Q: What sequence folds into this?
């Protein structure tokens, strides 16, 4: 579960409000989509949830652990897939995965099995011994996704996870998100691809210019807009009128 | 030619990170003022060293003037600068010609080899002028003022200053371009390039010493007499390292005669010839050394069950984080060359003359005499420990450890590893690399001079503690103001003021040890106790500071 309570963050000494008074609760067992146009504040909020940025105000709890007061316990609760998978390019895939397993304290027996299984699933087994530098964008994305799943986190946070993935891997990732949620865990992801949100999410929120302008199920959003139309139209209408 | 100038302009702006236009139009000028402030701070920090240099030059001039050899101070400056330009040049060229990320993107543009190499050469040259300034300006000024030189001298000095770095930089370019051409053939390009760089440096320095050796023996009485009586005797001796420097020296001291002009023309001719040769070599070989140089080898081999088990043994988080740091340091050529190789280089350079000349009576005698009494042992100990402190400060492993993370800093922020442990892992990298440099330095010292086991044991013991505060201070410097916003890895090192601050601190600490020990302490045991106590206390204090302020700072940093 993720509990976000009245969180704000601004840049340039308060001149630019990146996230403005956002409150949100994501329950276990659901896939929560976070939508917004470019520069709306999606990544800033995700960075605050994961402890990469410090919030100016408000509190964020992950499975009851406050990211500010008990950062290590909170960080153990989630696996994070950043929007830019260009990391540690001079490590091999297998070295990166073992580094993540070490940091999240996954025992030797469990990690060997999980790494093998996930590499197979993402068709990355033959690339694991090579430097990440030699991977394509999609392969980098996959290795980062695998790294985030090694400790079987109760909460899974993904920032634009489908970018660069081929259709097969994208499908697999959506399947895995579903499996994760069905096992009672939380999946929180940001996207600007409405089709993905429409197909995968149980609930979603729309953010624009740092403010959350809607949060609810797809049905609720449609009711809110008083008539059935595509999410694309709704999204455009909501973000333009905000 | 138009393309050459356009490229040069872009490279200069990119390299120095300052666009005047940007500065004028930008609303937020704080970063620019900060940069100017930092440069001023460095100048102020260097001022005492430069003052000492000027004082030595003035005294040298006064002492040599009665012998009519005051011109030797000019040659000293010119030779010193040539050597520095040459050595720095190899580093700059490897980094800037081959490891810069934009090197690859230029391949796609319609530019020829000599245009790209020429533009890059010119950027390095600008850098070298800046490095040469503090070494060359003082002797030129001291000689000119004290000898009441004519206008022609000042004119020649100006031309000479512009010419001095050309020849050594050209000489550094030629072997580097050739070796890199062949390093690029290999499948393990990164590794071979690093080794290639090392080979260039060792060969070049070895050559210099061989050249020196081929001349007459300095201890020969007849030669000594010639040195002292001939007006340019000392100048000739010094200029043996870079023979062409002699012509500039002669041009300056004979500025008012026709021979001065002739010598200046010869010097200019030689310098330009070497640059032309370097550009010609570059035109043929540079692109061949660059095309595909960032290709990585791909095995695409399926790992066996045993491979998975071996790789998956697991390490405690702190050690795993440390292992990751070390892997990146050793595998990233820029980091390897600037950090790890600095450790290797000084001991290797120190021992080259020994291996070339062999251990003969003349080379060991002065050491033996010095080492036979406690005072001498104390001095040697201070110099070795001071040197080690300087090397560790210069390798900047910890002084760039946050900067090196660059945009990946966020990983350190979201992983469940406390900042305390991350700091410890970074200290451990710096400490182990520092100690490896220290051990090599002690081995080099042992090769050069007959140190007894007792003194060696003391040196090792002292170094084990002396390394700690230097490494800690480096990390504090980088934590205070890390350079996180870089496009390619070499910017994290080459354009990072923290490296300079770390070096300055190391000069201060190393010099401080040497000064205090030589001045006030008379036995090696006292010296060891003094260093252990001083550095031990500093280590404790800085550790406390890192664990309080440092941890808070890690929390505040937002990449």
A:
């Amino acid at each position: 579960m993720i509990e976000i309570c009245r969180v704000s963050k601004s840049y340039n000494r308060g001149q630019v409000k990146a996230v403005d008074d956002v409150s949100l609760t994501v329950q276990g067992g659901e896939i929560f989509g976070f939508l917004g146009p470019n520069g709306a504040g999606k990544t800033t909020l995700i960075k605050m949830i994961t402890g990469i940025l410090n919030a100016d105000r408000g509190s964020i709890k992950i499975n009851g652990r406050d990211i500010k007061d008990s950062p290590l316990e909170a960080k153990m609760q989630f696996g994070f897939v950043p929007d830019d998978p260009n990391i540690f390019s001079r490590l091999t895939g297998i070295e990166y995965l073992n580094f993540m397993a070490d940091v999240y304290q996954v025992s030797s027996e469990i990690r060997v099995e999980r790494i093998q299984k996930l590499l197979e699933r993402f068709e990355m087994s033959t690339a694991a011994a090579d430097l990440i530098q030699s991977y394509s964008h999609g392969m980098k994305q996959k290795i980062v996704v695998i790294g985030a799943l090694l400790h079987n986190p109760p909460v899974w946070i993904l920032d634009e996870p489908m970018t660069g993935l081929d259709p097969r891997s994208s499908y697999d990732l959506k399947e895995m998100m579903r499996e994760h949620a069905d096992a009672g865990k939380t999946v929180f992801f940001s996207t600007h691809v409405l089709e993905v949100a429409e197909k995968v999410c149980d609930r979603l929120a729309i953010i624009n210019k740092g403010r959350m302008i809607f949060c609810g199920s797809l049905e609720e959003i449609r009711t809110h807009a008083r008539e059935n139309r595509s999410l694309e139209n709704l999204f455009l209408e909501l973000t333009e009128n905000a | 030619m138009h393309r050459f100038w356009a490229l040069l302009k872009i490279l200069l702006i990119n390299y120095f990170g300052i666009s005047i236009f940007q500065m004028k139009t930008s609303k937020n000028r704080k970063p620019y003022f900060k940069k100017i402030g930092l440069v001023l701070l460095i100048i102020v920090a260097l001022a005492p060293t430069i003052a000492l240099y000027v004082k030595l030059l003035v005294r040298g001039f006064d002492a040599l003037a009665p012998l009519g050899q005051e011109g030797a101070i000019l040659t000293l400056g010119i030779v010193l600068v040539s050597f520095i330009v040459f050595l720095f040049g190899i580093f700059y060229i490897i980094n800037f010609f081959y490891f810069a990320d934009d090197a690859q993107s230029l391949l796609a543009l319609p530019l020829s080899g000599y245009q790209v190499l020429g533009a890059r050469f010119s950027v390095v040259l600008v850098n070298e002028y800046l490095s040469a300034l503090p070494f060359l300006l003082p002797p030129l000024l001291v000689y000119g003022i004290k000898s009441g030189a004519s206008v022609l001298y000042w004119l020649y000095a100006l031309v000479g200053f512009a010419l001095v770095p050309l020849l050594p930089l050209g000489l550094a370019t030629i072997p580097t371009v050739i070796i890199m051409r062949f390093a690029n053939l290999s499948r393990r390009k990164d590794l071979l390039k690093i080794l290639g760089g090392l080979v260039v440096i060792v060969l070049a320095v070895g050559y210099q010493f061989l050249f020196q050796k081929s001349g007459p023996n300095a201890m020969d009485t007849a030669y000594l007499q010639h040195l002292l009586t001939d007006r340019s005797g000392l100048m000739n001796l010094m200029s043996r390292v870079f023979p062409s420097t002699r012509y500039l020296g002669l041009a300056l001291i004979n500025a008012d005669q026709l021979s001065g002009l002739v010598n200046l023309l010869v010097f200019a001719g030689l310098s330009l010839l070497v640059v032309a040769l370097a550009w010609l070599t570059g035109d043929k070989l540079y692109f061949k050394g660059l095309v595909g140089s960032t290709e990585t080898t791909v095995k695409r081999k399926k790992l066996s069950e045993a491979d998975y088990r071996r790789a998956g043994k697991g390490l405690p988080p702190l050690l795993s984080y440390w292992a990751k740091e070390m892997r990146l340091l050793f595998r990233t050529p820029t980091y390897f060359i600037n950090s790890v190789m600095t450790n290797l280089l000084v001991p290797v350079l120190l021992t080259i003359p020994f291996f070339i000349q062999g251990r003969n009576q003349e080379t060991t005698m002065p050491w033996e005499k010095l080492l036979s009494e406690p005072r001498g042992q104390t001095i040697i100990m201070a110099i070795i420990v001071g040197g080690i402190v300087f090397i560790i400060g210069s390798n900047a492993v910890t002084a760039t450890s946050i900067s090196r993370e660059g945009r990946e800093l966020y990983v350190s922020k979201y992983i469940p590893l406390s900042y305390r442990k991350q700091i410890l892992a970074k200290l451990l990298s710096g400490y182990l690399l520092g100690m490896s440099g220290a051990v090599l330095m002690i081995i080099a010292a042992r090769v050069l001079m007959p140190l007894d086991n007792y003194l060696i044991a003391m040196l090792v013991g002292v170094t084990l503690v002396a390394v700690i505060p230097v490494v800690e201070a480096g990390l504090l410097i980088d934590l205070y103001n890390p350079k996180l916003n870089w496009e390619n890895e070499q910017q994290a090192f080459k354009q990072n003021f923290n490296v300079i601050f770390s070096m300055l601190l190391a000069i201060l600490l190393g010099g401080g040890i040497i000064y205090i020990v030589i001045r006030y302490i008379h036995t090696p045991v006292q010296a060891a106790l003094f260093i252990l106590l001083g550095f031990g206390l500093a280590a404790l204090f800085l550790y406390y500071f890192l664990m309080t302020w440092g941890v808070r700072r890690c929390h505040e940093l937002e990449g």
Chain A has nine helices and ten strands. Chain A has a mean pLDDT of 87. Chain A touches chain B through 44 residues (CB under 8 Å). Residues 167-182 of chain A form the longest helix (16 residues).
